[in-house]
């Protein structure tokens, strides 16, 4: 039987067959806690209190992602290559819990700190189709999706720093080009299953739950037919120590991520997002070098204030920093933080993947978190279309990955 130890796209994992825990890297844990504390205190005294709350939520998101190795890139690749739907079923559970929590929040508009809660409901058009397809290719070449890039950096995966850099470049170029894609090319108005169809939030919730159940059933049917390899267990422990060290069950992480996303919605008035911060970071950097980014259509209207303010006033930026720090703490607690070797081929794949993801995310109104997770949880049709097109991009990327020395799962392989 062939053996396939999956290169963890979103972070490093244990060696195949190992269920032993490494000793915790206590000095790194202490350093991470200090950085998180200093950042939290800084936000508490310079920004609104909601920013400090979002930092804590980001820490918990990053910790959860790392501990469960909760992936979007690997989930799509496994189901498209060999028919393993374990991770995709975890997605369906995550989305089911999310819509259950989002429905009353969006229906009432209630938030913790004032303002009204609003989901991610975006237009459906050429921009979405092209962008999501590009993102699907990019995440398979870049070694991780948007959330995966952040928590892989937190885990010390060296090549993902290249992915992030070019993710930011791609997102910035996408921001500059976005008016062409949205204003010059065909597009429909945003469609909400809850408010645009007459179903209401309860009806949209019922339809969503039925759809998630159907997708889960389909993956089980595919597995029965193809008998794909199962995912090997990750290092773990028992009792309360498992909260801090060792792997978490993927289904438990799915519930945790849905709850944390709902808390994010109630804290800042919008669901969890990632890539808008990349466009902000890149645009601010371009402005330093004399580029007139303020003249771009993307930075007009409601976005103009963000361009002029501190990045710490941007809630998505704070969440991103929290995810990285949370993953760092989780990896160090598990004794897994270490940098690894970068080769020419995987560096090239990261450059191309990062550019495709950054540009695609701007065109598609979000990434695997803002569009797929947040969009579907918000009952937006664009979230479902994003998922379909990203799967199509993943299928094409299966033929591209070997060109960069990246492996593709085979039917007789053993997953890690």
Molecular structure report:
It is a multi-pass membrane protein. By secondary structure, this protein is mainly alpha-helical. It has one domain. The protein has a two-stranded antiparallel ribbon with strand order 1-2. Helix 1 packs antiparallel against helix 2 and helix 7 crosses helix 10.
Distance from N terminus to C terminus (CA atoms, Å) equals: 15 Å
Could you say how many structural domains there are in total?
1
Radius of gyration: 20 Å
Q: Order of strands in the sheet with the most strands?
A: 1-2
Low-confidence runs (pLDDT<50, min 5 residues)?
1-18
Secondary-structure element pattern, one letter each: HHHHEHHHEHHHHHHHH
From the structure above, extract its key features.
416 residues; mainly alpha; 15 helices; disordered N terminus
In a nutshell, what does this entry contain?
This protein is mainly alpha-helical and 416 residues long. Helices cover 62% and strands 1% of the residues. Belongs to the TsuA/YedE (TC 9.B.102) family.
Can you lay out the helices and strands and say which pair or pack?
Blueprint: H1 26-46, H2 49-68, H3 73-81, H4 86-108, E1 124-125, H5 126-142, H6 146-154, H7 159-184, E2 187-188, H8 200-226, H9 250-268, H10 275-288, H11 304-308, H12 315-333, H13 344-363, H14 368-377, H15 381-400
Antiparallel strand pairs: 1-2
Helix pairs in contact: 1-2, 1-12, 2-6, 2-9, 2-12, 3-15, 4-8, 4-9, 5-13, 5-15, 6-7, 6-12, 7-10, 7-13, 14-15
């Amino acid at each position: 039987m062939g053996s396939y130890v999956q290169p963890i796209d979103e972070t490093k994992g244990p060696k195949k067959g190992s269920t032993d825990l490494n000793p915790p890297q206590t000095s790194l844990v202490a350093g991470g806690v200090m950085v998180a504390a200093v950042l939290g205190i800084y936000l508490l005294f310079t920004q609104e209190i909601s920013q400090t709350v979002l930092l804590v939520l980001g820490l918990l998101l990053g910790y959860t992602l790392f501990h469960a190795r909760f992936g979007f890139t690997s989930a799509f690749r496994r189901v498209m290559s060999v028919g393993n739907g374990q991770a995709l079923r975890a997605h369906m559970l995550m989305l089911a819990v999310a819509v259950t929590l989002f429905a009353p929040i969006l229906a009432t508009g209630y938030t913790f700190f004032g303002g009204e809660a609003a989901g991610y409901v975006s237009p459906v058009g050429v921009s979405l189709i092209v962008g999501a397809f590009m993102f699907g290719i990019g995440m398979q070449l870049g070694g991780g999706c948007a959330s995966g890039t952040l928590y892989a950096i937190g885990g010390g995966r060296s090549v993902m720093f290249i992915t992030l850099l070019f993710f930011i470049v791609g997102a910035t170029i996408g921001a500059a080009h976005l008016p062409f894609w949205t204003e010059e090319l065909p597009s429909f108005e945003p469609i909400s299953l809850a408010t645009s169809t007459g179903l209401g939030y309860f009806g949209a919730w019922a339809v969503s739950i039925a759809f998630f159940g159907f997708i889960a059933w389909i993956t089980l049917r595919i597995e029965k037919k193809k008998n794909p390899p199962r995912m090997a267990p990750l290092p773990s422990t028992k009792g309360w120590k498992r909260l801090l060290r060792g792997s978490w069950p993927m289904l438990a992480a799915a519930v945790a991520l849905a709850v944390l996303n709902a808390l994010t919605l109630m804290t800042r008035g919008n669901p969890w997002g990632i890539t808008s911060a990349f466009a902000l970071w890149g645009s601010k950097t371009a402005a330093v070098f004399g580029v007139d980014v303020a003249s771009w259509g993307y930075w007009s209207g409601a976005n103009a204030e963000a361009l002029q303010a501190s990045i710490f006033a941007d809630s998505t930026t704070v969440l991103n920093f929290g995810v990285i720090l949370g993953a760092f703490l989780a990896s160090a607690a598990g004794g897994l933080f270490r940098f690894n070797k970068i080769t020419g081929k995987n560096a090239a794949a990261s450059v191309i993947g990062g550019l495709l993801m950054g540009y695609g995310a701007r065109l598609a109104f979000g990434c695997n978190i803002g569009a797929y997770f947040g969009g579907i949880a918000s009952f937006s049709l664009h979230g479902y279309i994003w998922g379909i097109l990203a799967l199509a991009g993943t299928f094409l990327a299966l033929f591209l990955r070997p060109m960069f020395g990246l492996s593709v799962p085979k039917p007789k392989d053993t997953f890690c």
